[in-house]
Amino acid sequence: MSSSGLAAGSPPRPKLDVDAPDTLRLTQAEATALGSAALIRIGYSADDSQIIVDQLVDNALCGYSFAGLPRILTIAADAKTRGPRTSVRVVHETGLSAVLDGGNNVGYVSVYRATEIAARKAGASGLCSVGVYNSYYSGRNAYYAEKLAREGFVVFHIACGEPRVLPIGGAKPALGTNPICFAFPSKDGPVVVDMGTSTMMVGDLRYHARLGKPLEPGVAVDAHGRPTQDANAALEGGVLPFGGHKGFGLSFAVQALGLLAGAHLARGQVQDFGFLLWVVKPEIMLPAGDFAAQMAELVHKIKATPRQPGCSEIRIPSERAQREREQRRIEGIVLERRIIEAIQAI
């Protein structure tokens, strides 16, 4: 195999991202340096900046442009970022659980610390529940869940937020975008299922607004509850649950689980940010320790399903992201010039 991962003599694989006059291609190291410098200018320590930028760059490598370095602009513009911060601390703890006060730190930092605690507790006791409140913007649930799955844990992770999503029949937002995530260890690498319960994540909405890109029909409403394809109008209004009443039901459940994480403790509001991790060591259910092998077999069986005409491959959740991550580590990350310039101007 060559250094590009292709057999000698194979035609070059097409690049994942197209270069254009209004874009720049950065190496992983260049993107990390750009993001870290901006975060330090915002007021984060070198250690916290590294924690944040590591996820942002990984998000970009996995193909989630809106969840990459553009998120620094959202963090910088948020009033909570300009407020006082204290260290993330445990305020309630048992052998199987912990609740953390995020200290008004951005969730990239507080949930990262919660993940470290969850790994220790589940490693010692077999399972644990860890919640975080008084925090905001934790990024992709998959980032934390994948880390834990690589350590051999089964993970359930939710994040609820401030009202951005309309309930069925509602004219105003009442729920967060409320992503829900599962992760499983496998002999062939982690398998992660991560999805928002809304038609669109707010980070993606902001990204569309910054670039002046129209939204797809049926995604969002304006401040008067009327359908809109204008991202700026949608930021004043809200987005819809995905899948109608089923998505609404899942979103409601995530908001309720956020209360278990302590969401109400920060400001006395039941519609606020909360982050919950449930982590299990498979051996407490299967002492023989063969869960990872069974997961690999399950993936193989599903991918081997006979395909419909025109389908070249059956893909498992997270397979695309993990595959593209390896390719972009070689090719680099493409960013719009205006995003880079805005980050440099912080």
Q: Can you offer a commentary on this structure?
A:
- The chain is 40% helix and 18% strand.
- The protein is built from twelve helices and twelve strands.
- It has helices at 28-42, 46-61, 71-77, 107-125, 141-150, 202-211, 231-236, 245-260, 263-267, 291-303, 319-331, 337-344; strands at 23-26, 89-94, 97-106, 127-136, 154-160, 180-184, 191-195, 220-221, 227-228, 238-239, 274-280, 333-336.
- Strands 2-3-4-11-5-6-7 form a seven-stranded mixed sheet, with helices on both faces.
- Helix 1 (28-42) crosses helix 2 (46-61) and helix 4 packs parallel to helix 5.
- It is globular, with a radius of gyration of 21 Å.
- The relative contact order is 0.17.
